[in-house]
């Protein structure tokens, strides 16, 4: 007997997408000059026209941010600043459904994820940081840590509103003002967030949003009026930014790529582990910098795990992101799909064995079936390079030491997972792994109280928790008590 | 009676617990402040640096996994060994830099106290900079500081001994291993300090000391792909930009400091956050 799922589509009636958008500068929407389309990657429908910010737009945004920093935001007591963040958190909660639908339309991620993960976590980030605004002297950064000034923030397309929250909430709580650029393919929730700032009566210029592509990002990175750059995206672009700011006094934090190892020891609870492997690589179509994209199976259980994993993958529902039953949605863009297709071909060419469940993909839009490659070694490109898609590379190991060696054999160091029932061994493995975020018997969990960020080429600095505040504050130099 | 001839010291490098000469065979003259010849110091090459990085990398796992108590005791042991040789270091500093005995003595004693200060930090840093994070779910979540890996340090020209110790003590406190390039003009106390290190139970490769030209070696440090971070406190600010650009290739963490601070320890620590699932 088999159960079929009836379609359970979410309505898009709650959204109100304008045919054309401008930038949000100095508390007002201002018209852009050039525009480019933003599409729904699940249908290729053009949703709206997004403005491409040039030099004069970025200049105006930086000027507005500086003015707001000097005249209001840096002078306002933390207690009052915090109240604005609390207001924003509440409005995000109130308008959560609208944000979730808009995010799914623009990004292609399943409504279940935007509804249950992205938007609630974005609100939680504002709520968490709101409470820090009047307690910064307790953060271990000295008795009176100071904001840096104007922060230029460039965010990716995989978690558009959530990444905005990770950037804007700590910057505002610590007294900085921001110029934020959402990713080219996912600007809509950032522009809706601008409305939230208006509803919260946030002083004009504290948050400025300019839309555009990499050229707009470069204008922000190289702008002399900006004190701090915060970037989330690829390691490749992260290195370009690091070089660009080298001759300047700008502070920088970078949240970059990863090739997370997900290690399964022989004593793991197999059924739970299979769910965790699925969460690790197929959550958000694998468009996750900390994805568990390298599965390391202890040799004696590899066959059993793979058998159960394949059976479980056959149950993954790929398709309409607006359907509440959908597990895996659309690939965010044509370009990203081409990248995934190319790297998967490399996987074939290098001798990996590709497997995907039989699944019918929609005719329109950008799609890639959940895929695993077995017979992969540490030397294969699909075990070394970030694919940023629903593609899992499977390797095996014999001893715990070998698992650690393979897991650490990467220039990245963002995340890792450990599956096993023996507590002392999971603690040991967590100690040995060179990565900034480690999940044991779980994967892809996020929380505003929990610092996130990588070792090595996965970036500079942390976001979230007490540790994340350091990215936006300077302490009085050499003051006693400063850690 | 004929006058006794002094036995002079040959100054070499300190790599992997041994004292090799530079593989390049190059030396440069070290002179007194008045210009008289003192010694030939090794002018390290790129290859010497690479040997030192191999040693530092090999030593990292053991040193970073040693207990904080153990690391603290070894740092304290270094201070003990330096204290016992105070007079020798005072002489060496006086003769190379031309400072008064009072000033040289002050530097050496401060260097000893700095080592003692960092010795006491090794088992406290985690309590003060770690965190238990109250996540909204059934997880025990905590953040701990860990070593970054292999750090390359360029020690200040002056004060040559104290500056060197301020460049290495905080770095190894949290479990990093280090390659330090000593003061070019006054490298002798650095190499004598390596003798102190060699008798302090410090595992081979944890601290490696090079002498030579900063503008030659520092760029090689910056572009070396197995160095995780740099302390460039002793580098001319004219070179900062070039070093940071080269260091971006593997996203090195590159910092500059003044004096002995706790921030010097945390700058070279990574924060690791671990989510442990809670359940029956």
From TrEMBL, chain A:
Gene Ontology MF term list: oxidoreductase activity, acting on the aldehyde or oxo group of donors, NAD or NADP as acceptor
Keyword Oxidoreductase set for record: yes
InterPro entries: Ald_DH/histidinol_DH, Ald_DH_C, Ald_DH_N, Aldehyde_DH_dom
Domain Aldehyde dehydrogenase: 33-474
UniProt keyword list: Oxidoreductase
PANTHER family, per database record: ALDEHYDE DEHYDROGENASE-RELATED
Homology family: Belongs to the aldehyde dehydrogenase family.
Protein name per Swiss-Prot or TrEMBL: Unannotated protein
Organism: freshwater metagenome
Organism lineage string: unclassified sequences, metagenomes, ecological metagenomes
From TrEMBL, chain B:
Coiled-coil blocks: none
UniProt domain Aldehyde dehydrogenase: residue ranges: 29-260
GO molecular function: oxidoreductase activity
Pfam families cross-referenced by the UniProt entry: Aldedh
InterPro entries attached to this UniProt entry: Ald_DH/histidinol_DH (IPR016161), Ald_DH_N (IPR016162), Aldehyde_DH_dom (IPR015590)
Protein name: Unannotated protein
Species name: freshwater metagenome
């Amino acid at each position: 007997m088999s159960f079929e799922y009836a379609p359970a589509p979410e309505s898009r009636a709650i959204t109100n997408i304008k045919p054309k958008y401008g930038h949000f500068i100095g508390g007002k929407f201002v018209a852009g000059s050039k525009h480019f389309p933003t599409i729904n990657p699940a249908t290729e429908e053009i949703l709206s026209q997004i403005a491409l910010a040039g030099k004069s737009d970025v200049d105006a945004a930086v000027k507005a941010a500086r003015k707001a920093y000097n005249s209001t935001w840096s002078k306002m007591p933390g207690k009052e600043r915090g109240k604005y963040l609390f207001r924003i958190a509440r409005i995000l909660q109130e308008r959560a459904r609208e944000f979730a639908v808009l995010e799914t339309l623009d990004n292609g991620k399943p409504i279940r994820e935007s509804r249950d993960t992205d938007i609630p976590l974005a609100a939680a980030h504002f709520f968490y940081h709101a409470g820090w605004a009047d307690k910064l002297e307790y953060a271990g950064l000295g008795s009176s840590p100071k904001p840096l000034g104007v922060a230029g923030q460039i965010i990716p397309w995989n978690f558009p509103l959530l990444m905005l929250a990770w950037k804007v909430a700590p910057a505002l709580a610590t007294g900085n003002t921001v110029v934020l650029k959402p990713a080219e393919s996912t600007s809509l929730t950032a522009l809706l967030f601008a409305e939230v700032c208006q509803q919260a009566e946030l002083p004009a210029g504290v948050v400025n949003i300019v839309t555009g592509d990499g050229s707009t990002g470069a204008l922000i990175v190289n702008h002399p009026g900006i004190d701090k750059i915060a970037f989330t995206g690829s390691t490749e672009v992260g290195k370009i930014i690091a070089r660009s700011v080298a001759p300047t006094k700008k502070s920088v934090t970078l949240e970059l790529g990863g090739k997370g190892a997900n290690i399964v020891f022989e004593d793991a609870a197999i059924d739970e582990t299979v769910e965790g492997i699925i969460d690790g690589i197929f959550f958000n179509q694998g468009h996750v910098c900390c994805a568990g994209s390298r599965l390391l199976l202890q040799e004696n259980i590899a066959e059993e795990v793979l058998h159960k994993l394949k059976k479980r993958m056959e149950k993954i529902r790929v398709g309409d992101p607006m359907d509440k039953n959908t597990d895996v949605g659309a690939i965010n863009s044509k370009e990203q799909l081409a990248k995934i297709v190319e790297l998967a071909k490399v996987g074939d060419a290098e001798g990996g064995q590709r497997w995907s469940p039989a699944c019918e993909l929609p005719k329109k839009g950008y799609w890639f079936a959940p895929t695993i490659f077995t017979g992969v070694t540490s030397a294969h490109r699909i075990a070394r390079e970030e694919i940023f898609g629903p593609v899992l590379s499977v390797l095996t190991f014999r001893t715990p030491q070998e698992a650690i060696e393979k897991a650490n054999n990467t220039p990245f160091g963002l995340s890792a997972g450990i599956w096993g029932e023996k507590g002392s061994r999971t603690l040991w493995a967590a100690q040995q792994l060179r990565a900034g975020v480690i999940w044991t018997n779980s994967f892809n969990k996020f929380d505003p109280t929990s610092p996130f960020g990588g070792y090595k080429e996965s970036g500079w600095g942390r976001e979230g928790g007490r540790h994340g505040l350091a990215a936006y504050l300077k302490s009085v130099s050499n003051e006693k008590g400063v850690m | 009676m004929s006058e006794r001839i002094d036995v002079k010291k040959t100054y070499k490098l300190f790599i992997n617990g041994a004292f090799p000469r530079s593989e390049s065979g190059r030396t440069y003259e070290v002179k007194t402040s008045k210009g008289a010849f003192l010694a030939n110091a090794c002018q390290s090459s790129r290859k010497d640096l690479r040997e030192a990085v191999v040693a530092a990398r090999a030593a990292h796992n053991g040193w970073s996994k040693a207990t904080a108590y153990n690391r603290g005791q070894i740092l304290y042991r270094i201070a003990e060994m330096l204290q016992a040789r105070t007079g020798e270091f005072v002489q060496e500093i006086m003769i190379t830099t031309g400072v008064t005995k009072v000033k040289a003595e002050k530097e050496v004693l401060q260097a000893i106290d700095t080592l003692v200060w960092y010795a006491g930090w090794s088992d406290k840093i985690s309590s003060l900079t770690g965190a238990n994070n109250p996540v909204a779910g059934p997880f025990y979540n905590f953040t701990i500081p860990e070593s970054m890996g292999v750090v390359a340090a360029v020690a200040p020209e002056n004060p040559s001994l104290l500056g060197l110790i301020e460049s290495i003590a905080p770095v190894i406190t949290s479990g990093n291993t280090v390659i330090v390039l000593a003061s070019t003009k006054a490298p002798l106390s650095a190499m004598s300090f390596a003798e102190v290190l060699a008798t302090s139970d410090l595992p081979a490769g944890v601290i490696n000391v090079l002498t030579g030209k900063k503008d030659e070696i520092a760029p090689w440090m910056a572009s070396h792909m197995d160095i995780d971070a740099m302390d460039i406190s002793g580098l001319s600010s004219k070179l900062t930009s070039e070093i940071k650009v080269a260091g971006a290739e593997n996203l090195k963490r590159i910092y500059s400091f003044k004096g002995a601070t706790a921030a010097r320890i945390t700058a070279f620590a990574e924060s690791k956050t671990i989510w442990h699932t809670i359940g029956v």
